[in-house]
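Pinned message: reference record for Elongation factor 1-beta
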Amino acid sequence: MGKVYMKLRVMPEDVDIDLEKIYEKIKEVAPENVEIKDYKIQPIAFGLKALLIVAVMPDEGEIGDQLVERIQNIDGVESVEVEATELL
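Predicted structure (tokens):
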């Protein structure tokens, strides 16, 4: 069984949302076998920024869907988009 690399774009509900706090919450709610490898805050437009997350997880079941669902349930998160997935 391999590992899956997943790149996610997390959009906040408002320009005033602290993306560093959202990142910390993502690390807390991630399933135990998901490793959050990296993140970046990317300017979008008019003060709006997106949080880009890189996660590595085992290639099993619905673990990626679980991660996305848990992130969507964090207060202050508007949406989560999977930008890329790759089998390592």
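Pinned by admin. Summary line: The chain has a mean pLDDT of 93.
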